[in-house]
Structures are given as C-alpha cells and as structure tokens.
Amino acid sequence: MKKLFLVGMMILGLSIGPVVHAQGVYPDVPKATGEPHPEGNEFMRINHPDLLRHDRDLTVRDGDRDVDYSLAGCVACHAVNGPDAKPVTSESSEYFCRVCHDYAAVKIDCFQCHNSLPPDLGEASLMFDRPEQSLDVLLTYLEGLSR
Amino acid sequence: MERIIYRELKSTPKVWGLLALLGVFIAAAGAVVLYVEHYGHIVTGMNNQIVWGLPHVFAIFLIVAASGALNVASIGSVFGKVAYKPMARLSALLAIALLVGGLAVLVLDLGRPDRLIVTMTNFNFTSIFTWNILLYTGFMVIVAIYIYTQMARGLPSYAVKTAGLAAFLWRLILTTGTGSIFGWLVARQAYDAAIMAPLFIVLSFAIGMASFLLVVMGITRMTGRAFGPELRTRLARLLAIFIAALLYFTTVQHLTNIYAAEHWGVETFILRDGGIYTFLFWGVQVLIGGLVPMGILFHPTLGKQARMVVLSSLLVIAGGFAQLYVIVIGGQAFPLEIFPGYDVSSSFSDGVVNAYTPSMLELILGLGGVALALAITIIGMKFLRILPNSLSDANVAPKT
Amino acid sequence: MNIPGLKPAGSCGGGCASKEKGADVHRRDFLKSGAALATLTLAPGVTLMAMGNGVAAKANPGVRWGLLIDAGKCPSDCNACVTACSDEHGWENNGLDTDPQWIRKVTLKDRETGRENSLPVMCQHCENPPCVDVCPTGASFKREDGIVLVDRHTCIGCRYCMMACPFKARSFLHEKVTDQKVTTPRGKGTVEGCNMCVHKLDRGDGTTACVEACNATGNNAMIFGDMNDPDSDISKALASYPSIELRADLKLNLGVRYQNI
User: Fold this and answer.
1) Does C160 contact B at CB distance below 8 Å?
2) For B303-355, what is each residue's pLDDT tens digit?
3) Which of B90, B229, C153, C255 is paired with B359 by a 20 to 30 Å CA distance?
4) What is the CATH number of the domain that holds B386?
5) Parent domain of B201
6) ipTM of the prediction
7) Domain count of chain B?
8) C174·B349 Cβ contact <8 A
9) Listed range (A76-85, B29-38, B283-292) with the worst mean pLDDT
10) Is residue B175 part of a domain?
11) What's the order of all strands across the beta sheet hosting C222-226?
C-alpha cells in the first residue's frame, strides 16, 4: 500500500514538467533579429553551452578567432530592447539569456566578464572584420606563390 | 593495566552549549562569505599588494596544525608507544577536523569559490597547489581509513600499523607541500628557500601538539573524564622539544638569510624595521610563543601543572600564528626587488613597504574555520567512539 | 652519438640475439604510422599558419612576440602608454590599492649616484613564467606565440600567480566590473594582466596599444615585434644595442627587454 502510494507520488511529480509545459508556463522567449540558425532552435537550445565552451577554448587557448559561435555574435542578434528602445543588459530579467535561465534556475556567469550589450559595430570588433581579412590572406598567399 | 573503553560523548547541556556557540561563529563566517562573494574582495583588507591576508594565515595555520595533530596517533601506531595509543582516535579525528576547517577558509576566500568544480577537474601538475589539493583530500581519506582500522573489529593485526604508517608518511608529504607553497616562489625575498618545507613540518609538530593538548584537556575536563597527569606531562615534554626544534629551524632560516647581502633588506625589515612584523617576530613568535613556553614546559615543577600546560599551549599557538603572519603577510609587505640598487617609485606601490589592515570580515571568516574544526571534532566524538572513558595514568608505564 | 651502454638501434654487437621481439616491432610500426598520421593532420594547419601575414588563423608557434623599451627615450612625465592601455582594455587606476594596473611607469633613482630614470613595467611575458607554473587550474598559461595570458573562464581567483610573479604584473579584480570592452572581457574575482593586446594582434594590427601611443607622442621608446624573426625591427635592435632583462638572474627569458636603464 505504501509502495503504491510512493509510486503514485513519483508519477505525479514527474508529470509536472510536461503538464506545465502543455499549459504554457514555458517562458516567452523574445524573438531574435538576423538570420535563423541553420541548425535549428532546438539544436541551439540543447547544445549552446558546449558550443560556447568549445569555441572559447579555441579562441583563448589557441588564438583561433575563426570560430562558428562567438558570444558577441549571439548578443548582437539576440539583443532585447527595453522600454527606452535601447538594448537591455543582463541585469534585466528581459535579457534574452535570462528569460530561459531564470526559468530553469541555472545561473550563468558569462556576463560577469563579458559585456552583455551588442558590440558597437563602429568599434574595431573582431568578428566583423573577418571577411576583408580572408581576402587579404588569400592575396598575400597568391603573391607569395608567384615569387 | 586498565582496559580502554571508548565511549561517545553524552548530550549534556555543556556540549550543546559549546556546539551552539561554535554554530554562531560558523554562521557568522557563512554570512561573511556570502557578503564577500557578492560585493567582491573590495570589502576585505586585501589588495593588489597584499593578496593573501588574514584568512590565509588562519587557513595555513589550521592545515599545518592538522598534520601535526596526527602526531600523537603516529607515535602510538608507527613508533609503538603504548601510552599514546588510546589517544590515537581523537588525534586522527582532530587532524581531519582541522584540515576541513582550514580548507573551508581557504576555498571560501577564493575570488570565484563557485568554480570549485573547475579546480577539481582542471589540474596543472607543475603547481604545488594542485598537488596540495590531491594531498589534502587524500589525507582526509587515509586518516578516515586509519580511524576505521582502529574502530573496526576483525581486522588483521597489522591493519592499524599499516594505515598509521601510510597516514604518517602522507602527512609529511602534505606539510612539505604546504611549506613549498612559499618555498618554491622565486619572486619574493622572504620566500624561495628550501628550508620552508622542513620549517613547516616542525611548525606542524609544535602547533599540532599544542592544539591536541588543548582539545584533549578541554574535552576531558568538560565531560568529567580522566586525563592522567603523567600522560599530560609526556605530551607537554614533547611539545617543549618541538618548540626547541622550531626555534632551531627559524634561527637557521634567518641566519642563512642574514649571511647573504642579497637578503639584508628583507631581514632588517623583519628583524628590526618592520614595525608590526618585527614585534610579532620577536615578541610573539620567539619570546612568548617560543622561549617562554619552552622554559615553562622544561621546568621540573611548572611543566607538570595543568594550568601551565594549557597556558603554554595557548602561547605556542599564538607564536605559530605570529610566525605564519610574518611569513605570509610580512613576506608580501616587503617590496619586490625588481631593480636592485635603485630607489623605486610608481603608481602601483613599487619600492614601498605595503600596508595591510585586516578587516573584521577576514577575522570572522578565519574564526569560523576554527569553529568548524572544533564543531566537527565534537560532533565526531558525540556520534563515534573516539574518546576513551578514561585517559588516566593506569596505562602509562612509570619512567624508571 | 656514442653513448656508452646504449646499443645503436637496429645494430647489435656480435653474438647477441638480434631478432626484435614481436611487441617491439608492433610498437615501432605504430609509432611510425602515428607520426605519419600526425604529420598529415598538422601539415595543412602549418601551411595555413605560414601563409598568414600577421593575420594567422591561430596563434603561430613560430612567432615570439616581444617588446623592447628604451628607457633613455622615455620621459618621466609621460604616461601615454599607461593611458592607452587603460583606454584600450577598460581598466582604471585611481590610486586605490585595490585598483588594477596592467602597465605602470616606474621611476628609478640610483642610490649611489642619484641619477633618475623612468620606464614602463608590465607583464614581462616570460619564456618560463612562474605564474603559469603555480596556477592550480592552468588558467594562467602561455600561448603558442609567447604571450602569457589568464584564461578567465578557468581562473578561480586564488591569487597564487600574483604571489609568484617577480614583477607584480597581475592585478586582482576586487569589485564588480561593468561596461567592459567587447575585446577585453574582465570580471570580479579573477586575475588579469597585460595580454600584449592579443585582440589587436589576432586581427592583424601588428602592434600593441602602448607602442602605438608611444610612437604617437614621438618618443618612440617602445618597439614591438617578432623576436623570432631576424628581420624584424625588434630583433635588429636587440642584435645591435645592449639590452637587459629585468631580474635576469631568475633566468625566465623574458619577452620584454630594456635598454639604457
């Protein structure tokens, strides 16, 4: 009798998740600007921590800036505007990352060090210089070959 | 010969009262940790010149005392002295407790204590800190096994001796590792000396024995269990010898430094011109922490009195604390010698003696670690059969 | 090379069983194939790195970035390098002992002669960095091209590297940081120091903020370049004029050299 009761409670407890999800308590994730991820949102939702961690090791340890997923890239597209039509920082609970992370109660510490505002495209930011550089590199290589 | 019966502590109001008091200190330290973690280390007295402060002195003191507290058990199990064997369980428990207290203070003072998992999964084996992490956790496991061998029935007769030997050797390596934290730094004038490791080992003997004496005398007094005067005198004599050894190593350390012109700067700083550090060195470390308790404990009549033993132990602890304060903080106060022969000045405190005022928060954190160590000891004695019913002199063979 | 006691591979002094054991044969083959595989894998990367002209895909292990500072050209009242660094990376030193300082101007006065000199001191980017040796998590590390950095993702803020650094190059962040530069993330509870403007180097600027500023003032006291390239300005200057390392007796083989101290 006791066992039946315990099993029943367990089933009840485990069903809270899907029930809640079905009822729409899931957070209201703000829409991003820019092109959608080719891998799909579900892939990103599940894998973004590993992608970020892998790329950060490449960038910091190896100096490889040619990475697929950079934090500044995420922030640029996923900026959420506050009431003053300016992007909010990670201090605000409206912030893109915070919406899901507050719901899931998983604290992130990226923005203790990284600036949570989208990078000013006017500044010499790393990611946005790349297309020209590849051309430079290619030309230099071809030049070197012809010597 | 009296049969040793180990018994748990009874839940008397005194025990609960003590635990409650310790709980207050632990809770206060917990609050400090949350506060510092939220606002950053700006609220402490530490800065970019004195990067390790009072919490580190407390932590290193507790860790070094932990390895020394195991001494009594080692003398019983490894060196076969029968009189010490009844105290072995308490000695081992105290060792674990002090280590946990020290580690708690150390870890909670990190800039990112939330990254403890990173520490446990990313090891850099050229760093003595990494080795220390393994040594400290290994120490707790080995000493726990050691206590188990002493308490379990049906184990072969060599089990206790083997575990005791393993624990003894491990603790020597551990204390070498702790001393090497400073001994292996080339940067600072006060460090970079091979003698740091053996100095710390002898320091552990002294403060470990003093801590053990205080705990065993305190707990037997509180619970009304016997603690024989002859046994106490034996421990006290040992403590006196350890103090003498510590004074010897300290003398060698400073004499060697004084001989080299390169180190005159830091030596005159510590021995003469250092203000608080000079006072702590001569007044507390050498005089009241070294010569006075040694004199008392070697004295034929004074050394046998309980009150004098307690006093001497307290003085030794104060002396050990002062020694670590001079090493850890004095060593940072003295400026780096980047440009020998020049007077240096800059906007980053080059060339000047660095000032440090410990904040109340750091003191509370440190005391919380001490309280945690004592609380673990008492709780351990409460739930496990650690403390013998009587530590009277019945099992101490009279000296011929 | 004739090492006594060591038999040359493949040959054997007369009279010994010259047949290799099965395990040895397999091990050799495995090693050979492994070496071949590694070469094949690495070759494209090496070629890629070789063709980058300062705009490398990764940190180039053939390069060793270094600085040469001429203290004779450094006026005592100039702080251009310090200001440039703090502007570039977003740190501020307002005189508090808890404020960070990545690069500082140091004034020297000879005790015997009274002669004064001034020069900037920053992380010396040692070849054998004590800070890298002592970091428990490996957060303090040396990149392939010689730059010594703190991986702030892994830094636990233990400050052992600050104890170990002979030049007091590192600072600990004592309070919350806001408004970080995108190219220099920095946060409370971690340790930081001069990173030789890695972000500038990696995008091809070829120099650091402090050197740029020093050149802009006209003093030209600092040269930046690749110490492994014999044709670079810095290598030529190091080869022609005497220079020293700070605390040279520690034998750390520094990436920052000084002249005319």
Assistant:
1) yes
2) 999 999 999 999 999 999 999 999 999 999 999 999 999 999 999 999 999 99
3) C153
4) 1.20.1630.10
5) 6-337+350-390
6) 0.93
7) 1
8) no
9) A76-85
10) yes
11) C222-226, C65-70, C256-259
